[in-house]
């Protein structure tokens, strides 16, 4: 059985699965619009949560939130399931496919044999769409693959029940009902922007590890790495930060570029031309993130120039935080003025 499903690659897996599932039901939204509607541009550094032995840094909310926030805002009914047993997980997936329902599935990237070797690491929050089954092979739309791929039932179960940090536990999700009315995008876009501004600059309150506060907190921590951990562990901590920024998901700069593209699209949708200027500013901030990652990489490899070290990296991160605070404050003001 094979469902007629359009595969379109994307910059980020959950954005791509969400966009492609919406497209299947006749709602053709861009990836930046999906990401923007979910109000998911963020920044957190959690020293008490570990991935591969190091603190988790993220530039988006928890996995699953992009899909759930976007569909809820647009008025779609959705379902998701977790499983304790492989047989139950496989049975539910096969049942949905037999009903003609494409299914989003969360998997561990390490167990996807079609992935290039450099991408097969233990990351258990990758999203794919399953749209059919032929014999023992599942038909898969992976948003970061250029073409549709196949995955054996054995590899599918290994990936769905990968162990380690954030085990997916066979998670699948799908759309079960459509909005009663065509979504009215202008007010929804404005609401999503204000929600993202609030989450970034207001909701963190005194908590130092989330939202805009993260820049100052992590900016203070990075210069302490060499004394706190020693040269080798300090480099590994910094390397983990770069990995979370540039390799896992879309990363810091990538998500900034996506949201900048969303703001440019939002300018046309809402009729607020000032969003174009804010989009350009956020693109510049994304460039600063990329420069920060490049400098941090050189420090990790002990190849940096004399004037770039852990201390200057901390100062650079604080400077990026100042730019983002100003941008989100201005963005909130502009959108509120046009409500």
TrEMBL record:
Domain DUF4872, residue spans: 155-331
Write down the superkingdom of origin. Bacteria
The record, for Pfam families, names:
BtrH_N, DUF4872
Q: Where is the Butirosin biosynthesis protein H N-terminal domain?
A: 12-143
InterPro entries, from UniProt? BtrH_N, DUF4872
What's the protein called, per UniProt?
A: Peptidase
* Organism of origin: Tannerella sp. oral taxon BU063 isolate Cell 6/7/9
